[in-house]
Design brief:
Shape: elongated
Protein name: Centromere protein H C-terminal domain-containing protein
Helix content: over 70%
Number of domains: 2
InterPro entries: CENP-H (IPR040034), CENP-H_C (IPR008426)
Family: Belongs to the CENP-H/MCM16 family.
Organism: Trichophyton violaceum
GO molecular function: kinetochore binding
């Protein structure tokens, strides 16, 4: 695991490595822990949220005139209303948490830390900000790599498709001369032609496999392929040559 972490660090850009080094140098931020009383308060706070959610669900009125024929519709409505109740309670909780976190954070950052908790909070805030910058750098690098990979895959698939088109042209020519081929008296020439046909079929099958693999990779990579004409054509290709 340690070797894997070192290899991962070496593959990062210098700026990102520097940020991660700074973030991991402060061992006191890693050793921070809540007191028993603080832990109990947080557990009670979570429990209060669960109780509020249960209360909101119990207070939600359900229709009593539900008929058997529209049970599916009522179930869909109940599910939607359940999600709305949960979302409303979650938003309320986030608002409360934001208010509770804002004042201590501002005090720790903009005032001289006067208590151990303020100093510990300031270290954690600094580490959070550094890790956020490192994350943004890695995300940008990742996006750039994905785009380069997609462009390379598009170029590769276009080259393969061009080769396939040439192969299909040859197949059409051989098919148009099928009757003449059957009358070729030269057995050696006839065997060579059959060998070319077999090779073309193999290339066609290989092209189809590669194209579908690359198309699936682009579609599942997370890249916005629909906004790129080349990528969209690659993903939505109707395989016009696959069945020729």
């Amino acid at each position: 695991m340690a070797q894997s972490n070192r290899d991962g660090m070496e593959s990062l850009e210098a700026s990102t490595r520097a940020l991660l080094d700074i973030a991991t140098q402060d061992e006191t931020a890693e050793s921070f822990s809540f007191s028993q009383k603080e832990t109990e308060i947080l557990e009670l706070y979570d429990r209060v949220f669960e109780l509020k959610l249960e209360e909101a669900l119990l207070n939600h009125e359900l229709p009593e005139d539900t008929q058997v024929e529209d049970i599916d519709v009522k179930l869909a409505e109940a599910e939607r209303e359940l999600l709305e109740v949960r979302a409303r309670v979650s938003v309320q909780r986030k608002v409360v948490e934001s208010v509770l976190m804002t004042e201590p954070s501002l005090q720790a950052v903009h005032s001289a830390p006067s208590s151990p908790l303020d100093r510990a909070l300031l270290r954690l805030i600094n580490k959070r900000d550094i890790l956020s910058l490192a994350y943004e750098n890695m995300l940008t690098t990742h996006t750039t790599c994905i785009r380069k990979l997609s462009s390379t895959e598009v170029s590769n698939i276009q080259n393969i498709k061009q080769n396939q088109e040439l192969v299909q042209s040859l197949l059409k020519l051989t098919n148009s001369e099928k009757s003449a081929d059957e009358e070729i008296p030269d057995l050696e020439l006839k065997e060579e032609l059959n060998s070319l046909k077999s090779e073309n079929k193999q290339k066609k099958a290989q092209w189809t496999r590669i194209k579908r693999i690359v198309s699936a990779s682009v579609a599942a990579s997370g890249v916005d392929w629909a906004s790129d004409e080349k990528l969209e054509r690659l993903v939505l290709d109707d395989d016009e040559f696959d069945d020729v």
